[in-house]
């Protein structure tokens, strides 16, 4: 079930870690943002060249922009090639392949962009590439560029990469191929936060039924969980990895399940909604290694092939993650959007939150 941002249900985020950040008192906080998260998000946008006032307005406008874009895409139907948020203009852009749809998009309140390839064509190319996609690669749709992007890590098998690139060539300029530094890996680690004998992860969101949702590669590796102070949390009761990257833990230890994300600077970010991520969305994440970091969603619907297998429907972001951040919460102000999965090629990757909640028949509260 796909939830429009305007109708997303309330969520509850679990503990993660903090990087202290300065705040700007001269400006009003963006709607839905606590002060530490607002400061981190504005700093991230400032690094991309946006002024503080513009960044504040953009963060406040994001939910409405997403809602407008979703409505426009639904009205255009099969002629749509997706939507993305344009940070410079603080607008939502809907790609269309038929000029006759431009008026429909504009009437809905979005910006129309005429492109060559429909979403159906892009998804068909992505899926064809996925059939020959080896470990240490990523394949997804760059909506803003109207292309499928293929990223190849340093350890990808040469013969299989040759097959992948040959397949990409068949689609001409609909597909672009990039070689990236490093490899695509999950972000589990050894240490504290929520821990077990096989490593350390970060809890994402508390969920109904006395449970918490995290990454599946975490619950696959660890059967019993403890918090950073050594208190017993409970057992892993579900793992879906690879294919997906969702896991569920039962809170048998009776630990508190607060209604916010712990930023570990004495502050917290309230979470009230859950919804899907889109390209161009400004997001933040909280994890037990790197604390609070922010960036921008660069793509959605990606397939990331780790050494353990491929994971589908991933979102890609510029926010910084490191081992131990796996399973941590991703959010845009008070809206929960994802769970940390991995990293590679200079990007971070997370699984959208809503499908995981639906998978287990639980919800945030």
From TrEMBL:
UniProt cross-references to SUPFAM superfamilies, sorted A to Z: Trypsin-like serine proteases
UniProt keywords, alphabetically: Disulfide bond, Hydrolase, Protease, Serine protease, Signal, Zymogen
- Please list the disulfide bridges: 201-218, 284-294
Residues in the signal sequence: 1-28
Family from the record: Belongs to the peptidase S1 family.
Please state what the protein is called: Peptidase S1A alpha-lytic prodomain domain-containing protein
Q: Which GO terms describe its cellular component?
A: extracellular region
Q: Which positions are catalytic residues? A: 217, 245, 326
Gene Ontology BP terms = proteolysis
**Which InterPro entries does the protein's record reference?**
Pept_S1_alpha_lytic (IPR004236), Pept_S1A_streptogrisin (IPR001316), Peptidase_S1_PA (IPR009003), Peptidase_S1_PA_chymotrypsin (IPR043504)
Supply the source organism's classification. Answer: Bacteria, Bacillati, Actinomycetota, Actinomycetes, Pseudonocardiales
Q: Which residues form the Peptidase S1A alpha-lytic prodomain domain?
A: 117-169
Keyword hit for Signal:
yes
Q: Which GO terms describe its molecular function?
A: serine-type endopeptidase activity
């Amino acid at each position: 079930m796909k939830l429009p941002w305007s109708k997303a249900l309330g969520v509850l985020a679990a503990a993660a870690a903090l990087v202290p950040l300065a705040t700007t008192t001269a400006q009003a906080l963006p709607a839905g943002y606590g002060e530490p998260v607002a400061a981190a998000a504005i700093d991230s946008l400032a690094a991309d060249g946006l002024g503080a006032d513009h960044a504040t307005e953009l963060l406040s406008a994001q939910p409405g922009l997403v809602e407008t874009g979703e409505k426009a895409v639904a009205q255009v139907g099969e002629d749509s090639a997706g939507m993305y948020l344009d940070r410079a203009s603080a607008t939502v852009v809907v790609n269309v392949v038929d000029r006759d749809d431009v008026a429909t998009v504009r009437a809905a309140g979005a910006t129309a962009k005429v492109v060559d390839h429909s979403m159906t064509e892009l998804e068909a190319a992505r899926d064809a590439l996925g059939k020959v996609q080896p470990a240490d690669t990523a394949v997804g749709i760059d909506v803003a560029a109207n292309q499928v992007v293929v990223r190849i890590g340093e350890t990808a098998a040469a013969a299989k990469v040759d097959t992948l690139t040959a397949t990409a060539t068949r689609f001409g300029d609909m597909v672009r191929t990039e070689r990236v530094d490093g490899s695509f890996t999950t972000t589990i680690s050894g240490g504290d936060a929520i821990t077990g004998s096989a490593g350390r992860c970060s809890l994402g969101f508390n969920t109904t039924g006395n449970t918490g949702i995290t990454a599946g590669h975490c619950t696959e590796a660890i059967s019993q969980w403890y918090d950073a102070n050594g208190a017993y949390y409970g057992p892993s009761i579900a793992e879906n990895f690879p294919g997906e990257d969702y896991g569920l833990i039962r809170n048998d230890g009776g630990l508190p399940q607060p209604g916010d994300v712990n930023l570990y600077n004495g502050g917290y970010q309230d979470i009230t909604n859950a919804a899907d991520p889109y390209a161009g969305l400004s997001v933040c994440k909280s994890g037990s290694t790197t604390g609070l970091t922010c960036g921008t969603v660069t793509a959605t619907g990606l397939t990331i092939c780790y050494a353990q297998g491929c994971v589908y429907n991933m979102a890609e972001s510029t926010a910084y993650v490191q081992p131990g951040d796996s399973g941590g919460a991703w959010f845009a102000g008070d809206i929960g959007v994802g769970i940390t999965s991995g990293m590679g090629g200079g990007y971070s990757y997370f699984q959208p939150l809503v499908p995981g909640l639906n998978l287990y028949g639980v919800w945030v509260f």
